[in-house]
Design brief:
By secondary structure, the chain is mostly helical. It has a single domain (4-157, 219-275, 306-604), classed as Amino acid/polyamine transporter I (Up-down Bundle). The protein is built from 24 helices and 2 strands. It has helices spanning 4-29, 39-42, 54-65, 69-77, 82-109, 116-123, 126-155, 159-182, 187-205, 214-217, 221-237, 244-269, 293-300, 308-314, 327-351, 355-362, 365-371, 378-385, 397-409, 418-453, 465-485, 488-516, 524-552, 559-593; strands at 595-598, 601-604. Strands 1-2 form a two-stranded antiparallel ribbon. A hairpin with a 2-residue loop joins β1 (595-598) and β2 (601-604). α7 (126-155) packs across α21 (465-485), α13 (293-300) packs across α23 (524-552) and α14 crosses α22.
C-alpha cells in the first residue's frame, strides 16, 4: 500500500478537527475568554510566570509534550501491522488527546497555573488531591525514565549527536538573553540567530567523529545518563526564559522542519508499506512485546493519540506563560493534533522497512532467529548508514532512523547520503525527546514543592532556591535511577501504562470540573474518552503485573526489578481507582444534590445562582 494515503488522511483529519471540534470545545464547553488576565500577568515574577509570545509558547509546549511516545511507540506497535496504530492515532488524537490537553490547560490557567493534583484537590476532593499527588509523582518519574532511556539509546556512541545536542544549550541561552534582555521582544531576530546556530551545530556535528573531539564525545550509556541528569537539573532551576523556553522553541523549528521535510519526502517518494495492515501478532506472542492488540496497542502508542504526560505540561510550565486565555486552543489542541501527524510519519517510516529488516533490528538476535524470517536488505543498510551492526538494536530508535533515512535518500538529488540522513535522524530523535525531559523535570519539581509545602509552607514557593534545588535533585535522582538499572522490556511497559493512567485521572478531573461548572450537557466530551482509557489501561496494568513483572521475580538477577515494578504498578493502579471513585462521588453530589464545589468546599447553590466557571471551583 502507498504510504501517502495515511499521511493525507491524518493531515486532513487534524486540520478539520482543529477547525471545528476544538472551536466547539473552546467556545461552548470551556467558554474561553480574554476578559480576565492570565496568571502570567497577575503573578509575573520573571522566573516561572512570564507572558510569552504565542508562537514561542507553542514551540515550547509542542517540544515539551513531543517526547519518545510519538516516535518510539508507533515503531514498536508496527508489529501489529499499520492499520491498528494508524486508527488509534487518528481517532485518539482528535477525540481524546486534544480534549485532554485543552481542558486541563484551561483549568490550570483559571487556577493560577496550579498542578493537576491541586486542581483535583479542589474540583474532586482533598483525598483525590492527596492520592493523585502520589500517583502523579510516581507516574512522572516513570515517564521521565522512559523518555530518558530513549535518549540514551539514540545518543550512545554517537559523537555527532552529542555535540549537536550539547551545542543547542549555549545557543538557546544566547537567544534567551537576546529576546528577553539585550533586544527585548525581538522575537524574529532571536529566532533567526537561534535557527542559524542550531543548523550550524548540526552541520559541524557531522565532522566531529573525524576530529580529535570524536573520542571524547563518544559517550557510553552510563556516561550519557549522568550527562542527561546534570542537564535536567540545571534546566529545571534556571529561569524559564533563559534556557527552557528558548531551547524548546528552537528545537521545535528542527522538529517541525524535519517532519515537514519527511511529509514532502512521502509525497515525492511514495514509499510502499511493507508491513501488512494486520499481522498474526494481534492475538499476542509478538517478538518485540508479547501482549495482544487489546489492550497493549493503547499503552504502546501513547503520546501520538493521548498522553497523561501532556496534562503535567498543560498544568505546569505552559499555563504560567500563556499570554491570553483564548490562545489555549491553539497551543493545547493544536500541538496535540500536530503530534498525531508526527506519530503517523514514524509509523510510515517503520512500516516501509522490509519485515525481515524491521524484526532483525528490533528483536534480540536469538528471538529473531526463532522467527524464521530472513533479513532482506539489512547488510546493505548497515553498510550505507556506516554502522558496524544494525541487528539487535532494540528499542525502536535505530529502526526509526533507518526508516527516516530511506525516505530522505529516496528524494531526487539526495541519494547517496544515507549515512548522513541516518545520523541526522538519530540526532533528531534525541533532540525531540530531550526537550520533554527538561520540561518534565521542571513540572515534577513544581509537584514535589506543592506536596512539600503542605508540610512546610516555604517549600511551596517556586522562587525559594533551597526548595527548588532540593526538589529538583530528588526528581532527577529518581528517574536517573530507573534508567541506570532498567531495560526497554521493563521501562516501556511501565511508562506506557503509567502514562495512560495519568490521562484517565486528568480526564476524570476535567469531567468533574465540567459538571461542577453546570455544563453536564457537554459531559460526553471528556467522559467517553475517560471511560475508554480507564478500562483499557487498568486491564493492561493488570496483565503487566501477572504476565510480565511477577514472573520476573522468579528469575535470578531480576528479582528486585520485578518486585519494584509490581509494587509501583499496584500503587499507581490503586491510586487511580481511588481518584475515579472520588470523581464519581463528586459528580453524583453535584448532579443529584446540587452541591457544587467552590474554592474546594461543597456549597449548595440555590435556584437562580450560577455555578462556578470551568476550572475556577
Amino acid at each position: 500500500m502507498n504510504a501517502l494515503y495515511l499521511v493525507v488522511v491524518i493531515m486532513l483529519a487534524a486540520a478539520l478537527a482543529y477547525r471545528y471540534y476544538s472551536a466547539f470545545i473552546a467556545a461552548k464547553v470551556l467558554a474561553l475568554s480574554d476578559s480576565k488576565p492570565t496568571p502570567a500577568h497577575t503573578l509575573k515574577d520573571g522566573q516561572n510566570y512570564d507572558p510569552t509570545n504565542k508562537w514561542v509558547l507553542f514551540g515550547h509546549h509542542f517540544a515539551a509534550i513531543s517526547g519518545a511516545g510519538p516516535l518510539i511507540g508507533p515503531v514498536l506497535a508496527a508489529q501489529f501491522g499499520y492499520a491498528p496504530g494508524f486508527l488509534w492515532i487518528l481517532l485518539g488524537s482528535v477525540l481524546a488527546g486534544g480534549v485532554h490537553d485543552l481542558m486541563i490547560l484551561a483549568a490550570s490557567i483559571r487556577r493560577n497555573g496550579k498542578s493537576l493534583a491541586e486542581i483535583a484537590r479542589n474540583e474532586v476532593s482533598p483525598l483525590a488531591g492527596t492520592v493523585g499527588s502520589i500517583a502523579i509523582l510516581i507516574i512522572i518519574i516513570l515517564a521521565l525514565a522512559g523518555l530518558g532511556f530513549a535518549v540514551v539509546k539514540a545518543l550512545a556512541e554517537s559523537s555527532w549527536g552529542v555535540f549537536t545536542i550539547g551545542m543547542t544549550i549555549p545557543v538557546a541561552m544566547f537567544v534567551g538573553l537576546w529576546m528577553y534582555k539585550f533586544r527585548k521582544g525581538r522575537i524574529v531576530e532571536g529566532s533567526i540567530i537561534g535557527v542559524i546556530g542550531v543548523f550550524a551545530a548540526l552541520i559541524i556535528g557531522g565532522w566531529i567523529p573525524h576530529t580529535v573531539l570524536g573520542p571524547y564525545l563518544t559517550l557510553s550509556p552510563k556516561s550519557l545518563i549522568i550527562a542527561i541528569a546534570v542537564y535536567g537539573f540545571v534546566a529545571s532551576v534556571l529561569p524559564v526564559w533563559l534556557l527552557l523556553c528558548p531551547r524548546d522553541y528552537l528545537s521545535s523549528y528542527l522538529k517541525i522542519g524535519t517532519i515537514a521535510a519527511l511529509i514532502i519526502g512521502v509525497f515525492v517518494v511514495h514509499p510502499t508499506l511493507k508491513m501488512p495492515a494486520f499481522t498474526p501478532y494481534i492475538h499476542g506472542g509478538g517478538p518485540i512485546f508479547s501482549g495482544k492488540l487489546f489492550p497493549f496497542l493503547f499503552i504502546t502508542i501513547a503520546c501520538g493519540a493521548i498522553s497523561g504526560f501532556h496534562s503535567l505540561v498543560a498544568s505546569g510550565t505552559t499555563p504560567k506563560m500563556i499570554n491570553k486565555e483564548t490562545e489555549a486552543r491553539f497551543i493545547g489542541y493544536g500541538a496535540m493534533v500536530m503530534e498525531a501527524v508526527v506519530s503517523v510519519i514514524a509509523l510510515v517510516a517503520a512500516c516501509s522497512l522490509e519485515q525481515g529488516d524491521y524484526y532483525a533490528i528490533n528483536c534480540r538476535p536469538e528471538v529473531f532467529a526463532a522467527l524464521g524470517i530472513p533479513p532482506v536488505h539489512l547488510d546493505v543498510l548497515t553498510k550505507e548508514v556506516g554502522e558496524a551492526n544494525l541487528a539487535g538494536r532494540t528499542g525502536g530508535a535505530v529502526s526509526l532512523a533507518v526508516g527516516f533515512a530511506q525516505i530522505f535518500s529516496g528524494i531526487p538529488g539526495l541519494t547517496g547520503l544515507m549515512s548522513y540522513w541516518y545520523h541526522f535522524a538519530i540526532m533528531f530523535e534525541a533532540l525531540f525527546i530531550l526537550t520533554t525531559v527538561d520540561a518534565g523535570t521542571r513540572v515534577a519539581r513544581f509537584l514535589v514543592q506543592e506536596f512539600g509545602g503542605r508540610v512546610w509552607k516555604p517549600f511551596n514557593r517556586t522562587d525559594w532556591w533551597p526548595g527548588a534545588l532540593i526538589s529538583t535533585g530528588l526528581v532527577v535522582f529518581a528517574w536517573a535511577y530507573f534508567i541506570w538499572y532498567g531495560t526497554i522490556d521493563t521501562i516501556w511497559p511501565m511508562f506506557g501504562t503509567a502514562n495512560q493512567l495519568l490521562a484517565a485521572v486528568a480526564l476524570a478531573v476535567a469531567t468533574t470540573a465540567l459538571i461542577n461548572a453546570g455544563k453536564a450537557r457537554y459531559v460526553w466530551v471528556p467522559l467517553l474518552p475517560m471511560l475508554f482509557v480507564s478500562v483499557t489501561t487498568l486491564y493492561a496494568g493488570w496483565r503487566n503485573i501477572f504476565d510480565k513483572f511477577l514472573p520476573m521475580t522468579k528469575i535470578e538477577g531480576k528479582v528486585t526489578v520485578g518486585a519494584v515494578n509490581v509494587i509501583l504498578m499496584a500503587i499507581i493502579m490503586g491510586c487511580v481507582v481511588i481518584v475515579l471513585v472520588e470523581a464519581g462521588r463528586r459528580c453524583y453530589r453535584t448532579l443529584v444534590k446540587k452541591q457544587y464545589t467552590i474554592f474546594g468546599k461543597p456549597v449548595n447553590v440555590s435556584a437562580g445562582e450560577l455555578p462556578p466557571r470551568f476550572g475556577e471551583a
